[in-house]
Amino acid sequence: MSLDGTVITSRDACAVSGGQADGRRPDRAAVARYAAHGAGVVVARGSYDMQTVASLATALDTAAEKHRKVVLDASGVTFADSAFLNLLILTHRTTDLRLAGPTPQVKRLLEITGADTVLTVRSTVEDAAAC
């Protein structure tokens, strides 16, 4: 798998948006992109909230421009709130978005909001890209 984008951390996103990043959060957001199984894959790591979701939004938009199918590998997401959920729904409305390997916290968020009935969720990137 080859990366076709840069890794963006929440510290970088905060610098651009004027927010604060003190570097002490071990779960700061990071995003990477690659292509696999005919899909654009976006790998999300760390915490996603209103201040850090911009880097993920950019990565998903870029993947959607290049690929009909987009898989979000959410196996490394340590925290997600309504900003993350909103991004998933908006992305789903514009492209064929699939989630792969969501953490228990992300699964719970999807379940309590009913988003798991709208989004395609699979346990692995390979399964998500293949369905």
UniProtKB/TrEMBL annotation:
InterPro entries: MlaB-like_STAS, STAS_dom, STAS_dom_sf
Domain STAS: 38-131
Pfam families xrefs: STAS_2 (PF13466)
SUPFAM superfamilies: SpoIIaa-like
Annotated protein name in UniProt: STAS domain-containing protein
Organism: Streptomyces bikiniensis
Lineage, top ranks: Bacteria, Bacillati, Actinomycetota, Actinomycetes, Kitasatosporales
